[in-house]
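Exercise 4. Each item below gives a protein and its sequence. For each, produce the structure-token representation.

Item: Amidase domain-containing protein (Suillus luteus UH-Slu-Lm8-n1).
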Amino acid sequence: MGAKLLTLFWVWLTLGQSLYVSRGVVSASITTPLPDLYEASVIELQTGLTSGQFTSVDLIKAYFARIEEVNLQGPMLRAVIETNPSALQEAAALDYERLTSGPRSALHGIPVLVKDNIATVAFEGMNTTAGSYSLLNSVVPNDAGVVKRLRKAGAIILGKANLSEWAHFRGNIASGWSGRGGQCTNAYYPNADPCGSSAGSGVSASIGLAAVTLGTETDGSITCPANQNNVVGIKTTVGLTSRAGVIPISEHQDTVGPLARSVTDAAIVLSIIAGPDPNDNFTLAQPIPVPDYTMALSNTSLVGKRIGVPRAVFLNDSMTGNDPYVNQVFEQALETLKTLGATIVDPADLPSAYEIYESNNETVVLDVDFKVQLNAWFDSLVANPSGVASLEDLIMFDSNNPTLEEPTGYTDQSILIESQATTGFNASYYQSLAFDMELGATRGIDAALKMYALDALVLPAPGYTTVPAAIAGYPIVTVPLGFYPDNVTIGSAGPETVYPAPGVPIGLSFLGTAWSEYSLVSFAYAYEQKTQTRLQRKAYAAAIPTTQLADVIGK
Ligand SMILES: *[C@@H]1O[C@H](CO)[C@@H](O)[C@H](O)[C@H]1NC(C)=O
Ligand SMILES: *[C@@H]1O[C@H](CO)[C@@H](O)[C@H](O)[C@H]1NC(C)=O
Ligand SMILES: *[C@@H]1O[C@H](CO)[C@@H](O)[C@H](O)[C@H]1NC(C)=O
Ligand SMILES: *[C@@H]1O[C@H](CO)[C@@H](O)[C@H](O)[C@H]1NC(C)=O
Ligand SMILES: *[C@@H]1O[C@H](CO)[C@@H](O)[C@H](O)[C@H]1NC(C)=O
Ligand SMILES: *[C@@H]1O[C@H](CO)[C@@H](O)[C@H](O)[C@H]1NC(C)=O
Ligand SMILES: *[C@@H]1O[C@H](CO)[C@@H](O)[C@H](O)[C@H]1NC(C)=O
Ligand SMILES: CC(=O)N[C@H]1CO[C@H](CO)[C@@H](O)[C@@H]1O
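Answer:
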């Protein structure tokens, strides 16, 4: 989609023009073929909806059929845990509203899949369980703050995405596995690790099981699945997007953000879900107004910018555990950034790099926060038929229901047990919290940005990259970087999953200070547009759903 149409589209939306005018704007596209749902962008879908080429009802039917094809049949990707039984009805209402009063936003009538730790009201027909049977049929008091914003913008919640159970805060368990959802796998190589914890969101975005998806990240859970599934992920500054109604790990690190097939789609979603929410007071600290992140989409954004490479620890394979191929493709990305006009400052080490690597402060904080906040989550429920009302109950529930929650290879509960052993907020906790900010921000990301006068940092997404941003609460934008070569040595990632593996994607991460999403999005866009990496390799044949809009229109 060209810049001109993008601009036109936004001018039209901003002015809130009538249907008559909107038809005029897109009339040229009526002869365009139906978008291929494997790759379709939000703008292409919105254009087709506006021109009457297809409806949101058609879109829901097509995405449901695509999910059916690959989720529990064929390659059995187990990316989706539930579909929304009210989605068709909601789509029909939004189609009618479009006709009578026009679209509410760029996401009007667009199907969005959300991770299963993000609450949706029970009467709509879906569970909110973080993948755990302990929350099956539980009744949440309300939609999550981000879901309220999506609905207000006219988006349709298509379903819930599988995830690493409890957002991977349970024990030493393979990424992408949950009791309810089973083992989610990557669409780029049979049984490859999807990475997590937003595994189902990443996999679903990668092959067009939804238009766009939401994930959450505490440390790596958006950027790693973005990285490993050839999609774009935005891990936001803590406090940019509301965590109200999100099954928690820690208020100091949890974030909600988009996983999408392009920086443009991710920017559209972020512009809608960001913003203050009285139910999450961390969001009251963000700068107002929320930027329109689509205004950051420029091909010249890297011209004259200084981008730092924090090599110590983060590019040392023996510390990150990365396959050497990761650094090889990363070095090529640095050359690309130079051709885009950036000055690469290399190295630009974090003064705290080795201390971050040694530090256990993050675990101290998360263990204490999780117990307090998860217990508060159970307290907040209107009902929970399993009877589980606390972390202590949860550990017993898992042990008492081994076929559901502790099948062979997925038995570990060590993190739950470690968290249960904590005794609340004491001096050690506050000291670790302060060290996290110091190591991640003051003597970490902010120190490097300041010492070398940088606009951002850049690193390969896999490895240790997520940690400084996680403990500082700072943002990361991840874009496709490359794919493991066909002769890569296949490794094991869990009882049912492999990694690395031939053709499995690798991502590039841009990191910055608090609230720097706008510039990180702009840098990621210029890189994405120059390289077009996502389009260089597709999922394996059986993992590509065949249903398209043409199969459902008028049926
Ligand atoms: C950026 O460049 C690509 C072609 O490489 C083009 O398709 C796109 O429209 C450009 N974006 C903007 C915002 O000008
Ligand atoms: C939750 O899942 C169960 C089992 O799949 C289903 O019966 C129920 O309708 C779902 N929805 C809610 C809101 O509990
Ligand atoms: C949010 O509110 C709690 C009390 O309800 C307070 O302890 C905390 O400091 C507040 N946090 C922020 C970031 O304002
Ligand atoms: C990489 O890490 C290893 C293990 O900590 C260390 O021995 C080696 O010196 C490091 N390499 C560099 C270039 O810093
Ligand atoms: C926290 O970080 C500080 C500074 O690096 C370090 O001295 C301390 O040992 C760390 N604490 C834990 C629990 O790892
Ligand atoms: C704080 O509590 C933890 C357990 O949660 C304990 O290991 C630690 O020793 C306590 N620290 C202090 C200073 O009491
Ligand atoms: C894979 O092939 C490339 C050339 O295509 C070669 O440079 C590389 O060493 C090979 N790697 C392995 C692990 O065999
Ligand atoms: C637990 C689970 O995975 N359930 C759902 C998975 O997705 C399919 C759609 O393919 C649903 O029908 C299942 O109920």
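Check: The pocket of 2-acetamido-2-deoxy-beta-D-glucopyranose (ligand 4) is lined by residues 316, 318-319 (CB under 6 Å).
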